[in-house]
Amino acid sequence: MAPSKLTTVDFNTFANIVNGEPRSAKNKYNGIDPTTKEKLWDVPVASKEDVEDAVRAANEAYRKWSKKSWEERQEALNRFKDLYASYVDDLTELLLKEVGRPKCFSELEIKSCLAFTDWHMKLSQPEPEQYEDDEKTITTRFLPLGVVAAICPWNYPVTLSVGKIVPAVLAGNAIIVKPSPFTPYSALKVVEIAQQVFPPGLVQALGGDDKLGPALVAHPDIQIVSFTGSIATGKKVMAAAASTLKRVTLELGGNDPCIILPDVDIAKTAPQVALGAFLNSGQICVAIKRIYIHKDIYRPFVDALISFTEQLKIGTPKGENVMLGPLQNEMQYEKVKTFFEDSKKNGYKFVAGTDNVEEGKGYFIKPAIIDNPPNDSKIVTEEPFGPIVPCQPWEDEAEVIARANNTKAGLAASVFGKDLERCERIANQIESGSVFINSFAKPRPMAIFGGMKESGIGGEWGKLGMLSFMIPQAIHRYK
């Protein structure tokens, strides 16, 4: 039985959360229902005063919270987890409206945050390291950083907010969450719910316009920015953070390769690869973006991909057997269309889907597979972040590894094959932060998540990821 709610939360009105209290504003903005293109609820645009008040409250809360024991913080997170569990149905319904993802996958996102919180709150405090000789003892301990600005994306607004809140708070920090203006609703409610557990100012949320993110990044009293989003915006965040030399963790875009060995079970593997490419309509940073299939099985494997992809039902969140929803926003919809237009203009072969995106009531795009476009094509070299993927044959192992690594991105990759030794050998040569063998990318809280090359700086989640929210201090004691 779910725990009872401590207070009633209105899921039809939305506010920023500053120092434990809801706060409105003169100016408002709206998210858009991607299935209908209709405006959703009003959300206040945070002002400069809101930013200053939130940062001040966060620093005050941090000074007290950082003095609490690790066990006290764990206990608070446990209470937050139990409270959050009582709102799973409400948050799922909210997520349906703002993201448009099918209900089963929206519910999965909301519930996965329970497991994420549960795993992290059971982590032990990082052990101090010690060196000792006849002259001195040196002890290195790990301290909280201070105030975290969490700038979150629109594709998984709850997972990627809770995924920053939990480790930041456990490490002893305060946090200000800035949700994407495309999907502000569920993240604002999660932070509102959190006020029933955490002291005022510890977990806050500010939504707003395109001035808000830069204001948080440049603020001298914020010690770390945790950003998830595009490579282009990540570079701007890093440049702006340099003015105050604050820490940054950046989880950015990817162009994730998938290598298919000739010994795979085609009937079993092709559906996994298709899901890896098209779940959430391709709007996943670690979605499969390029599929490299051994030449000996190229045609039958592509045919199996086509067969499975054409069975994926597209529709509204509560439609029966719906697997794919719309693109979440107009900006992304228009961007993805350019990949269809470029592939059509250059005469690439569409073996699934069509070369024409039909305009409709919502931002729906039928998934497409491009058969063997050139290595320098837009669909191969850039990340669509949408339901379109290229397939290419390969023969030489070293050559396909070089092709897989021929990108400035390096977030995740996957390798499928029965010869596990060969899979491991290939995986060890892939330049990405995560590699998945015989699975499409499924990041889990047990392991750090981050990227190589332009896919990011640092990493979060897992035991190692906790250290992103902490700073080492060495104490030298002479005898």
Overall spatial form = globular
Rg calculated over all Cα atoms: 23 Å
Work out the number of β strands.
22
Query: Would you tell me the overall average pLDDT?
Result: 96
Q: What structural category arises from helix and sheet content?
A: alpha/beta
Proportion in β-strands: 15-25%
Give the second-level CATH assignment, the architecture of the largest domain: 3-Layer(aba) Sandwich
Taken together, the total number of domains comes to 2
Largest sheet: 7 strands, mixed
Provide the helix percentage: 25-40%
- Name the CATH superfamily assignment of the largest domain: Aldehyde Dehydrogenase, Chain A, domain 1
- Secondary structure tally, helices: 15
Quickly list its features.
seven-stranded mixed beta sheet; single chain; alpha/beta; 479 residues; 15 helices; Aldehyde Dehydrogenase, Chain A, domain 1
